[in-house]
Amino acid sequence: NNKKKKHVYWIRSSNSARLQLEDRVVGIVQERVGPDGAGGDFYRIHLGNKNESSASAILSNLSFEGATKRNKPSLETGQVLYARISEWVEGLEPVLSCQLGPHDSSAIKAKDWMTNEGVYGVLQGGTVLQVSSGLARVLLTPQGVALWDSVCRHDLTSKFEIAIGVNGTLWLHASPSPQATLVLQNSILNSQLLTPEQTAAMVQQLVYTMSKQMKQQEDSVN
Fold it and tell me: In Å, what is the CA distance from 164 to each residue of 31, 126, 137?
């Protein structure tokens, strides 16, 4: 039998998943577009990933928890926010909302936008990191949990906040030092194809190297 064997190869693309209704995204305020017709203003939000089907979206400043015509956020160019895709008509820009949606847990209570304690809304301070949409989705799976567990084991990186947008934009806020943010960024970027064990070793090495550099800098100052 001289039949040739057929070889089938499966290729996983890091940008294969397109945005969908109710996806959570991290975006950057680009510009004020104009009135929304209901007493608020529309803003164009940059979603930051050119590989996605839509690079921008629209958000009304009335689409925040507790927002009214008289009491609504005034967004500024460059602000970073976490939102969900609430509407999407084919051929048009998706519409975002910073209010709880049907896929959010019923255990989560809505918090007024002025408290800065809601699930969605403007993200204060921190750093924006661009990754593939594929990696962003992985970070929300058990594989991602393994990364966060590894990061939290070390004092240098144990205190941080993160908002993961499946559009491939992440917002990070680590304390107490810029070095913690750098270690967190590198841990995320290096984790995509690693096992939990490899992830733990990688994070430990990054923390060790950064801690050593910080100690050397401290000694040189003293």
Answer: 23, 13, 8
- pLDDT tens digits, one per residue of 32-84: 999 988 899 999 999 975 544 468 999 999 999 999 999 999 999 999 999 99
Domain encompassing residue 162: 130-213
103 plus 29 within the same structural domain: yes
Identify which of 24, 190, 37 has the alpha carbon closest to the alpha carbon of residue 118.
24
Contact by Cβ (8 Å): 184, 174: yes
**Count of other CB atoms within 10 angstroms of residue 46:** 18
* C-alpha span between 19 and 195 (Å, rounded): 26
Q: What is the pTM of this model?
A: 0.86
pLDDT at 25 over 80: yes
Q: How big is the chain by its Cα radius of gyration, in Å? A: 21
Q: Name the maximum alpha-carbon separation found in the chain.
A: 81
Residues 91, 169: one domain?
no
17: its two tokens: 């998943």
Query: What tokens does 175 get?
Result: 């304390």
Q: What's the total number of domains in the chain? A: 2
190 Cβ neighbours under 8 A, 6+ residues apart: 202, 206
CA distance 146 to 148: 6
